[in-house]
């Protein structure tokens, strides 16, 4: 590709949009090795790994394989929220396959004992990539025409895996779209600064009022049981608020904004809970309409948890937010907590200066190691540092790579972990696309009439780049 490609593609981008259907899938299981790299055999040495496939549009003679590199969760969740792949399958007559990440959903090495006896040592990026590589190699042989193109897709951590697949297995993956992929390890306070900026873009008064709401709550908390009771009542907590659980309460309240910023889609969506269109805007309106700043903040927080956890007379932060090594939440998935401990470096801190949240210290590597060893045993060595990516996955030297698209929405709080976004063409065939008006991997979702024209144009641009890879 040439540098002029950017201008050619922009000139031909169209803005039409329809609501795409989510294809039905067929569930398959394949036998995968637990350890791809050791000469020694584990007991057991294999596990059943789940695949979801669709061949509705597939042309066996020349159609490409379109693979989603599964991330942290059951793979059907991603199938139901990645409609752009199905649109491309129709356009390119492709074979669609979503591969479930090991240790998630139904793909459990060691079954229910996956977390015992340090079995989670096999829950690594390298082992997951090897799963994908073997499965795709076998699939190409099964379908025939082993030279057919394979294009990978992934969002968030799945986007990191898509990029890593192209970097590590270019003989298997011909190109990849890594959407909202925090490929650069995030630390410090950037993530929550981005959440705050999203609120400020909608209404500059919103972050100020949220700050004031937290200040009111913290001031009441210093007044002892009577003040804590007032805060608990305002936020409709099921259990008494105490000095001991105040920190967890603040994390719970902050998590509402984290999730809304990620799912700040232009239409109602259920990917991260049953949220309204542009939930950040909705929450800011709720905050600003409160009788006091704290009342508005409480109303917005309760409104979020009613939507995501089900309406109830009260809420329990201890149940609705699980504190873990990922400050944006692990839910009930201790697998993800382990991955953060092992390899995935994530943001943690707020400072009430660059963001609107109460000061909460960003974890240091020493703090992570202490937490991880306390949770999962002294033999676990915390290694989620920038050097891991720099050594294993090229660091930020993407100009040396080829056939990759990195897309980041300007509403997505993970954008600060994306690749450099000041230029479109990182190299002759590696591109950075800013999705104006896009939240967390919105471009991977199905086309929708409510998508901003800029989002539709980003998808059109991605489609045209991918078409050139398939034609090479």
Key words describing this protein structure:
472 residues, disordered N terminus, 40% helix, globular, 16 helices, single chain, 8 strands, eight-stranded mixed β-sheet, alpha/beta
Please explain how this structure is put together.
The chain is of the alpha/beta class. Helix content is 40%, strand content 11%. It has helices spanning 5-12, 75-79, 83-92, 125-143, 157-168, 190-202, 205-221, 225-234, 246-262, 279-288, 293-309, 317-320, 334-342, 365-376, 386-392, 453-471; strands at 26-33, 46-54, 65-69, 95-99, 150-155, 175-179, 404-409, 430-435. Strands 1-2-4-3-5-6-7-8 form an 8-stranded mixed β-sheet, with helices on both faces. Helix 5 (157-168) links the parallel strand 5 (150-155) and strand 6. Helix 4 (125-143) crosses helix 5, helix 7 (205-221) packs antiparallel against helix 8 (225-234) and helix 10 (279-288) packs antiparallel against helix 11. The radius of gyration is 23 Å and the shape is globular. The protein starts with a helix and ends with a helix.
């Amino acid at each position: 590709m040439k540098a002029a490609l950017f201008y050619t593609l922009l000139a031909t981008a169209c803005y039409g949009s329809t609501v795409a259907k989510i294809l039905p899938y067929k569930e398959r299981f394949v036998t995968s090795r637990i350890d791809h790299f050791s000469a020694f055999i584990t007991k057991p040495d294999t596990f059943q790994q789940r695949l979801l496939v669709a061949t509705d549009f597939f042309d066996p003679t020349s159609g490409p394989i379109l693979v989603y590199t599964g991330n942290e969760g059951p793979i059907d969740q991603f199938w139901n929220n990645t409609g752009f792949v199905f649109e491309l399958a129709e356009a390119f007559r492709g074979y669609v396959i979503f591969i479930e990440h090991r240790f998630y959903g139904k793909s459990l090495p060691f079954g229910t004992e996956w977390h015992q006896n340090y079995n989670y040592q096999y829950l690594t990026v390298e082992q997951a990539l090897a799963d994908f590589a073997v499965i795709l190699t076998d699939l190409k042989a099964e379908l025939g025409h082993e030279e057919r193109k394979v294009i990978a897709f992934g969002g968030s951590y799945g986007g990191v895996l898509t990029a890593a697949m192209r970097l590590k297995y270019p003989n298997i993956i011909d190109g990849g779209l890594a959407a909202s992929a925090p490929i650069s390890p995030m630390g410090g306070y950037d993530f929550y600064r981005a959440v705050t900026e999203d609120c400020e873009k909608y209404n500059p008064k919103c972050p100020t009022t949220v700050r004031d709401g937290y200040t009111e709550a913290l001031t009441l908390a210093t007044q002892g049981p009577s003040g804590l009771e007032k805060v608990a009542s305002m936020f409709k907590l099921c259990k008494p608020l105490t000095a001991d659980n105040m920190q967890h309460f603040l994390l719970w309240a902050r998590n509402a904004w984290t999730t809304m910023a990620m799912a700040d889609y232009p239409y109602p969506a259920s990917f991260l809970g049953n949220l309204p269109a542009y939930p950040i805007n909705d929450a800011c309106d709720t905050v600003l309409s409160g009788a006091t700043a704290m009342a508005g903040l409480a109303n917005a927080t309760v409104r979020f948890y009613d939507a995501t956890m089900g309406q109830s007379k009260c809420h329990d932060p201890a149940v609705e937010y699980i504190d873990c090594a990922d400050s944006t939440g692990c839910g009930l998935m201790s697998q993800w907590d382990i991955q953060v401990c092992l390899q995935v470096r994530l943001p943690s801190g707020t400072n009430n200066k660059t963001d609107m949240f109460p000061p909460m210290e960003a974890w240091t590597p020493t703090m992570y190691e202490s937490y991880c060893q306390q949770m999962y045993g002294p033999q676990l060595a915390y290694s989620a540092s920038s050097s891991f990516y720099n050594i294993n996955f090229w660091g930020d030297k993407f100009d040396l790579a080829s056939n990759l698209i990195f897309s980041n929405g300007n509403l997505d709080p993970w954008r600060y972990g994306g690749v450099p976004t000041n230029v479109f063409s990182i190299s002759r065939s590696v591109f950075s696309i800013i999705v104006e008006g896009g939240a967390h991997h919105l471009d991977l979702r199905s086309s929708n009439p409510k998508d901003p024209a800029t989002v539709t144009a980003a998808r059109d641009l991605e489609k045209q780049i991918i078409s050139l890879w398939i034609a090479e």
